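Appendix B. Chain record.
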Amino acid sequence: MIPRILKALALAALAWPLMLSAALAHPHVYVTMKSEIVYDAEGRMTGIRHHWTFDDMFSSYATQGLESKEKGVFTREELAALAEVNVTSLKEFDYFTKARLNGKKAEFENPVDYWLEFKDSFLTLHFTLPVKGPVKTQD
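Structure tokens predicted for this chain:
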């Protein structure tokens, strides 16, 4: 009876590193981010406009199986459902956007004007995060 238990423990000890390495080996997505602060005519900040270009591996994976009129060329309309998935899935991460306005944490509305562009084999997600109420940033 004891040798059977020792054998099971030994197998578990050997399997542990394999399970751990499998858990750590998840894919990463690399993004080149460009952001613009959006102001209204009165000079108040109204939002942040983001342009996120995804790496070629993610871009290829994300467009795999999407139907298009021309192979490898996608219109904004053909990418609309994917853009919706992108912005919806980023909500739980606050769209990776953190800001302080007049010493307080900035709060943002849900994204507007979001769309995807496919150019030179790269997907770029464009979206605007409106600030909750325009904010005067300077006196």
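Further analysis of this model is presented in Appendix C.
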